[in-house]
Design goal:
The complex is a heterodimer of chains A (562) and B (172). Chain A is an alpha+beta fold and 562 residues long. Helix content of chain A is 40%, strand content 17%. A 5-stranded parallel β-sheet of chain B has the order 2-1-3-4-5. The longest helix of chain B has 11 residues. The chains are: A alpha+beta (562), B alpha/beta (172). The complex binds iron/sulfur cluster (SF4).
């Protein structure tokens, strides 16, 4: 462990409570501590770190390592954002009895992660308040966990319809309004059941994971290091660069590959351009959702030159195919740099005009202000990320907290608002566009010369672990890579920003008017494709209920009594 | 035959219902893109509608996951005849890189008959407009259609569909 790490505050807190943990901590990669604990210790340390030391729960990684060590592995990844540190708590579970005590009752953000660990690998979270099937399709055979190594990525599993997880019963006296799986406002399939008392939402039930495409399984079984980035970018049509960049940086960190600085700058520039077009897209869609189509048309008109620019610079409007482990595949030439500057000048000027109009528009404000409240405590407890968190006064931004690519040299300003409503989330995104334009210009100015690809001799070392968080337009995308033999990843885990944000939606729409539900769901910029890269899911959001059951009952009773 | 009928009945205004069946979003955004000022597909009378019962054409993106297949089938049945089905993007055309993973059926034509295929990852907005025009017979076809052999999949789609009969597909 480096001396700086030893000085960190959270470590003091941790060692005070658990003195023998110090001997178990290893820091193979700077900023990433790994501790192998027993299965009794792990939940205790996780709960303590999250609830007493302010750690942010990121994700769990369940691994089938029976071919190597004869057991299963589970890692809980925590982030200490202020201290720029990741903490991986790992435990090995015997193959015939893969159980671990659930932390969800104390750490609500772990809810989906633990259920996914059961679905995909078969690790049982004991005492989980809602242990229903999350990711797998309704009719998937029971007892089959597709991420286990004995299954091929292309196995065709039979259909067993009796396995469909039960739906959540609506509270007494409420009306059920189904929404989806295909519905007009959002692009992607998801199935919400809203429980209403009159026009007001008193509860909700969510069924998603319609877009699960078995990406992780492909990465674990079929592909080698340099093929994965091309699959990773197709996880999402908007933040493709984010996923491929997070993956390659995780491998580079694990294998200590020195990426040339110029390559890092090129990644940064592409990432920021992606953020610009994503935010423009979102603000337009938000306008569309509340029937303000001028905003949609204006912003998409402003956005289109950015898409053309991307095509000129990278060769494709989306899916830039730029990243490889060790560098990037193409350079940004002087002419391309000029092109980027020219387009950004135009975008900035036009966007400024729209923002000035939006900021004083009373009808927009009436629809967005005080709608879809996500309080700061709830945002923290549910692990919300990105503009959703920053709109609720939670100042986390991976570009600053866990710098990657060339962000440590760019001095990023976090955009934070304390309104906690849809309006605050909109403001965060509006200001971030200007910030991104500034960052691209600065990066173009500072970009050093030199090679764009590192030399990699022979194969990459096996059994190293690398983590990387990349700030996508929607929030933190987290990738975990454990390297394996033959230049293939042994385990590749990714967590998209919508994954935690989606868990916060039940909380956001609690108590709002039915007509405001689409904008609330829209306001965290959902991207189901990213989230559902693995399979199909059914979820009840009872973990993030603001009303207790008693309160709900009270409500319905009052209604009956008039 | 169907395209003759469509040419006659739909060529002045084609209403589209867009559905994402396991796409990455890339194609979906390009579909919306053709509505915005630079491409403005509404000048051809095409527009997106909110319900398949109002639609003349289904625009399908994505490689069709196991979970979405029954809903897609019901969507197809809900669209009134005559209808055209447009598969947008490599995913909907043939399943793209995940065509044979355990949760993917591998393309829209595994579930519903497809009239026009628009490949590309994602296809350019111009290509989408061209494909829609092709479906309507507004531009001449350059290739002869070929019948593809049905590839049997390892599980029983009809069993799925029966199970989903009671699930509402579209609600406004
Ligand atoms: S074809 Fe490409 S852009 Fe379209 S949904 Fe598939 S992966 Fe995404």
């Amino acid at each position: 462990m480096s001396p700086e790490t030893l000085q960190k505050k959270f470590l003091k807190g941790l060692t005070e409570q658990f003195p023998d943990i110090l001997g178990k901590l290893r820091e193979y990669v700077p900023g990433q501590l790994i501790a192998v604990l027993s299965r009794d210790e792990l939940p205790k340390v996780t709960k303590y770190a999250v609830n007493q030391l302010g750690a942010r729960f990121v994700i769990t990684v369940a691994t089938d390592q029976r071919d190597k060590t004869g057991d299963f592995g589970i890692s809980y990844i925590l982030a200490f954002d202020e201290e720029k540190q990741f903490l991986v708590l790992h435990s090995n579970l015997p193959a015939d009895d893969p159980r671990i005590e659930s932390v969800t009752p104390d750490v609500p953000a772990a809810n989906w992660a633990e259920r996914e660990a059961y679905d995909m690998v078969g690790i049982v979270p004991e005492g989980h308040p809602d242990p229903r099937r999350l990711v797998l399709p309704d009719d998937f055979p029971a007892g089959i966990h597709p991420l286990r190594k004995e299954y091929e990525y292309n196995t065709r599993f039979p259909s067993e319809p009796q396995n469909a997880p039960p739906r959540m019963p609506p509270p007494e006296g409420s009306t059920v309004v189904p929404l989806g799986p295909f519905y007009p406002t959002l692009e992607e399939p998801a199935y919400f059941r809203l429980f209403l008392d009159g026009e007001r939402v008193v509860g909700s039930d969510y069924r998603g994971f319609y877009n699960h495409r078995a990406v992780e399984k492909l990465g674990d079984s079929e592909l080698n290091y340099n093929q994965v980035p091309f699959v990773a970018q197709q996880i999402c049509g908007i933040c493709g660069q984010v996923h491929s960049c997070a993956y390659v940086e995780a491998v580079e960190r694990a294998c200590e590959i020195e990426t040339p600085m110029r390559a890092k700058y090129i990644r940064t520039i592409l990432l920021e351009l992606e953020r610009i077009h994503s935010h423009l897209l979102w603000v337009g869609l938000a306008g569309h959702i509340i029937a303000f189509d001028t905003v949609l048309m204006q912003l998409w008109r402003i956005r289109e030159p950015v898409m053309w620019l991307m095509e000129r610079v990278t060769g494709n409007r989306k899916h830039y195919s730029s990243n490889l482990v060790g560098g990037v595949r193409f350079d940004i030439t002087l002419e391309a740099a000029e092109d980027i500057r020219r387009v950004l000048d135009k975008v900035e000027e036009e966007f400024k005009a729209v923002v000035d109009a939006v900021l004083i528009d009373t009808s927009l404000m009436a629809r967005l202000k005080d709608v879809g409240i996500l309080t700061e405590e709830n945002a923290r407890a549910l692990g919300a990320v990105g503009p959703t968190a920053r709109g609720s006064n939670v100042a986390i931004d991976c570009r600053v907290d866990h710098p990657y690519a060339a962000y440590d040299q760019l001095d990023v300003q976090k955009q934070v608002q304390d309104g906690c409503d849809c309006w605050a989330r909109t403001l965060v995104r509006l200001y971030e566009v200007f910030e991104s334009i500034r960052l691209v210009r600065k990066a173009l100015d500072q970009m050093p010369g030199g090679p764009i690809m590192a030399k990699i001799d022979g194969s990459l070392p096996a059994d190293r672990i690398g983590l990387c968080s990349v700030e996508a337009a929607r929030g933190e995308s987290h990738h975990y890579v454990r390297t394996g033999d033959n230049n293939r990843p042994y385990r590749w885990r990714l967590r998209a920003p919508t994954y935690p944000n989606l868990q916060a939606v039940g909380c956001m729409i609690q108590g709002v008017n039915l007509a405001d539900v689409p904008i609330c769901i829209g306001s965290y910029d959902p991207c189901f494709s990213c989230t559902e890269r693995v399979e199909t899911l059914d979820v009840n959001t009872n973990e993030i209920r603001v009303y207790t059951r008693e309160e709900l009952q009270e409500l319905s009773r009052r209604k009956t009594l008039g | 035959m169907i395209s003759d009928l469509c040419k006659k009945m739909l060529s002045k205004s084609l209403w589209l219902f867009h559905t994402n069946c396991g796409a990455c979003n890339g194609c979906d955004i390009e579909v919306i893109d053709v509505l915005t000022p630079y491409y403005d597909v509404e000048r051809f009378g095409m527009k997106l509608v909110g319900s398949p019962r109002h639609a003349d054409a289904l625009v399908i993106t994505g490689s069709v996951s196991r979970q979405v297949a029954p809903a897609l089938k019901r969507l197809y049945e809900a669209t009134p005849d005559p209808k055209v089905v447009i598969a947008v993007g490599t995913c909907a055309v043939g399943g793209n890189i995940w065509f044979d993973t355990y949760n993917i059926l591998g393309g829209a034509d595994k579930v519903v008959p497809v009239t026009v295929y628009i490949p590309g990852c994602p296809p350019r907005p111009e290509a989408i407009i061209y494909g829609a025009a092709l479906a309507l017979g507004m531009v001449p076809k350059k290739v002869k259609p070929q019948r593809e052999q049905h590839v049997p999949r390892g599980f029983d789609l009809d069993a799925y569909i029966a199970r989903w009969q009671d699930t509402p597909v579209v609600t406004r």
